Amino acid sequence: MDKNEIKVFCPATIANISCGFDVLGVALDGVGDEMVVRKIPEKGIKISKLEGQDLPMETHLNVAGVAGMALLEQSGHSGGFEIEIYKKIKAGSGIGSSAASSSGAVWAMNELLGNPFSTLQLVQFAMAGEKLASGVAHADNVAPALFGGFTLVRSYGPLDIIPIHSPAELYATVIHPQIEVKTSDSRKILKTNISLKDGIKQWGNVGGLIAGLFMEDYALIGRSLQDHIVEPIRSILIPGFDAVRSEAQKSGALGGGISGSGPSIFAFSRGKEIADKVANAMEGVYRHIGVAHDVHVSKINTEGVRRL
Ligand code: HSE
């Protein structure tokens, strides 16, 4: 590959992580898309290939195109970029499919331009892709995809992203029942007000989870994985949600919940051996009730988007 072309891995991500709706996320290692991005003399972004999913290739309708244009407009670059997208993450699966494409595009373009932009600026560009995908420019998938590891969006205005320590032995198991839930639809069903009582429980857990991650206190991580606000509403859309989560826990998972806006369900475990057992237990529930599914076991990706 010449210096005008780059191939990248764009990680899947788990957003929300139960208690942190729109603010917490983590990047995965075992699942992700691939992209090839190259400089072209013509101005603008051209999606020249899109394999693996049926998604629009028009620049203004494609999340990588929109995120890429946001960067290009700020860059002063006279030419443009051509993007090939090889989707491995299913759209609407709840593990950051749109974020992988948006983040991969802006990260690769920044590399090819000699890194004029900071990672925080790349998050801002990638958020334009999220806005196209879900109607809301949420950063809880694109921030971990670009920074790697766990991230906290402390504030959206101004954007303030805090990278969070990833415990070395932490593994994620993610099961995807083969139905598609659009983030825009699963946001519409949420209530816009919460009670003080639920707020108190929720921010206790957010603080507990972050402390648990920094202290590598696996038990604290586990007991902080509770969502009193969003999960009770969204879990209704997910087949066998309660059984999958409780079987995961019985097999040794620290805890879990809905991955992003669903329908995928995630569980965290200490060590790969337990994470594999958890995968079997989760699959057992879906085999029993007859739900087609994919399952992934992954360690935490502390790097984010990377060159291949
Ligand atoms: N925080 C977003 C939501 C993530 O739950 O709607 C979408 O992946």
Kindly describe this structure.
By secondary structure, the protein is an alpha+beta fold. It is built from 10 helices and 11 strands. The model has no long low-confidence stretch (mean pLDDT 97). The longest helix has 20 residues, at 196-215. The chain has helices spanning 63-75, 97-112, 119-134, 142-147, 183-188, 196-215, 218-224, 231-234, 241-250, 272-289, and strands at 5-15, 24-40, 44-51, 80-86, 150-156, 159-164, 170-177, 255-258, 265-270, 293-299, 306-307. Strands 1, 2, 3, 4, 5, 6 and 11 form a 7-stranded mixed β-sheet that branches.
Q: Can you give the helix content as a percent range?
A: 25-40%
> What is the typical, i.e. mean, pLDDT?
97
Strand content: 25-35%
Identify every distinct bound molecule in the structure, by name, code or SMILES: L-homoserine
Largest sheet, if any?
Answer: 7 strands, mixed
Instruction: Please identify the structural class as seen in this structure.
Output: alpha+beta
Report, as a whole number of angstroms, the end-to-end distance.
11 Å
What is the alpha-carbon Rg in Å? 19 Å
Unreliable stretches = none
Order of helices and strands: EEEHEHHHEEEHHHHHEEHEE
Summed up:
With 308 residues, this protein is α+β, with helices and mostly antiparallel strands. The protein contains ten helices and eleven strands.
Notable features of this structure?
38% helix, alpha+beta, 308 residues, 10 helices
